[in-house]
TrEMBL record:
EC number: 3.4.11.-
GO biological process, one term: proteolysis
GO molecular function: aminopeptidase activity; metallopeptidase activity; zinc ion binding
UniProt-recorded name of the protein: M18 family aminopeptidase
Organism expressing this protein natively: Desulfofundulus thermosubterraneus DSM 16057
Keywords for the protein's UniProt record, in alphabetical order: Aminopeptidase, Hydrolase, Metal-binding, Metalloprotease, Protease, Zinc
Keyword Protease set for record: yes
Length: 464
């Protein structure tokens, strides 16, 4: 049995408790994660990376198997934006499955269907922000464009501009302070409007006397030359403006990682790593990566969709000789889940919004969050005491450093996760993830120890 690393907020940082090989493992995983999070800047890119990893680790498409046996490793995707993976266990699936679920979407700026216009001899793209952002975060920084456009003939074209050193980048110019007196007197959430988040994309006119909007056409010429796109193709496109920088070490000691999209792709990475490294378990293990959490889990790729239920149904039909809806319902009700989502860490610059006794600290391990919600736990999935005990016991037995943490002071604000949607099936669920500083900003910060312990914790949950 490994050493009990059970660790409540306010105690010694976990790094000091680790031996040399464990510290090396932390740093090795962090480097692997840095490469992942630098490349996974959209939900589609995240799923593409997960599919590639699954294939490299012996997972096959579920549709390729008509019968499943213990040890089989399968996956399925939907619309390129969500994915489920499973390692079949030795116990009867009727006893339930162990689920770790995270989301692949992050706050960003989406191009509008008709984004391109010309004004003041400049070309710009109109955007619509996605998720809960502070709009002022997104001005005055270099941005890249990532996404896809589907042409009229159905051809899908991938678009990435701004990641190579030779690429141009984009930005939203901020108002100079010399003329910002009225702006600075506004509330922070009013200083920059949603309609003011337009990207600078061009400034040279085309050399064509017959063209009216010459600078706009310079942009269109570029899109046609590089990607074969026409202006109308942007109507059937999903192109996102995201920060044009890679993940970086933060701190003189390199103890932290700063990157865009760590909410919630740090959970995606650690869950993915946990399930691909998992030997054949007793209870069937499921990893779930869904879309649209940041805007309410809606749509046919969000947690409200039938994707998860359909995946478990497909598993069941390949395992249980006499499949029925009743069997499926029993499996779901007997299952257990971790809602793998990040939480807020204690920020020394903003201690007044936190209850320090019930707030996670960076470097103190994986965070167990009994409930989220706001205004009297509204919208929360409040984990039962019995399940909290079970998860705590599992982590302690496997030597996983963990801590308890909530989301700020009562009546300060709040938030939610997909936990309540998993709980609709009757299964026990608790939120469990990495604490962040600067959540929902273009450069979120996570501690390398906490990332490592998330991987260890999710794997421990699968192993039982």
């Amino acid at each position: 049995m490994t050493q009990n690393m059970g660790n409540q907020s306010g105690t010694t940082p976990v790094w000091a408790k680790l031996n040399g090989p464990e510290q090396e493992a932390v740093m090795n995983l962090a480097e692997e994660y840095r490469q992942f999070i630098s490349a996974a800047k959209t939900e589609r890119e995240t799923i593409d990376l997960a599919v590639a990893t699954a294939g490299d680790k012996g997972f096959v498409l579920l549709e390729q198997r008509s019968v499943l046996e213990p040890g089989d490793r399968v996956f399925a995707t939907w619309r390129g934006k969500c994915m489920a993976m499973a390692v079949i266990g030795s116990e009867p699936v009727e006893k339930g499955v162990n689920v770790v679920a995270s989301h692949v979407d992050s706050p960003r700026l989406d191009l509008k269907p008709r984004p391109l216009y010309e004004e003041a001899d400049l070309a710009l793209f109109k955007t619509h922000y996605y998720g809960g952002i502070k709009k002022y975060h997104w001005v005055g920084i270099p941005l890249a464009l990532h996404g896809v456009a589907v042409k009229e003939d159905g051809q899908l074209v991938k678009v990435v501009i701004g990641e190579k050193e030779t690429d141009p980048v984009f930005t939203i110019a901020d108002l100079l302070p010399h003329l910002a007196r009225e702006q600075m007197e506004k509330k922070m959430n009013e200083g920059i409007s949603g309609e003011g988040l337009s990207l600078l994309v061009g400034g040279f006119p085309v050399d064509d006397g017959e063209v009216k909007e010459k600078i706009k056409h310079t942009v269109l010429d570029y899109l046609n030359r590089e990607f074969g796109l026409q202006e109308e193709d942007l109507i059937s496109a999903e192109i996102e403006a995201v920060p044009a920088w890679p993940a970086r070490d933060v701190g003189l000691d390199g103890s932290m990682i700063g990157a865009y999209g760590q909410d919630d792709r740090v959970s995606v990475f650690t869950t993915l790593k946990a399930i691909v490294d998992l030997p054949a378990p007793s209870k069937t293990a499921v990893a779930l990566f869904v879309d649209k959490e940041e805007i309410g889990s809606v749509g046919n790729t969000g947690m409200y969709s039938a994707f998860f239920t359909n995946f478990v149904a497909e598993l069941t039909a390949r395992i249980v000789p006499r499949y029925s809806e009743l069997v499926l319902r029993r499996i779901l009700a007997n299952s257990r889940a971790l809602s793998a989502d990040v939480n807020a860490g204690l920020d020394p610059n903003y201690p007044e919004v936190m209850d320090k006794l019930n707030t996670a600290r960076l470097g103190h391990g994986l965070v167990l969050t009994k409930y989220t919600g706001s205004g009297g736990k509204k919208g929360a999935s409040d984990a039962h005491a019995e399940f909290m005990s079970l998860v705590r016991r599992l982590f302690n037995r496997h030597g996983v450093a963990w801590q308890s943490g909530l989301l700020g002071k009562v009546d300060q604000g709040g938030g939610g996760t997909i936990a309540y949607l998993l709980a609709l099936h009757g299964m026990d669920v608790v939120d469990c993830g990495v604490p962040l500083l600067g959540m929902h900003s273009p450069f979120e910060v996570a501690h390398k120890v906490d990332i490592y312990m998330a991987y260890r914790g999710y794997r421990a949950f699968y192993e039982g």
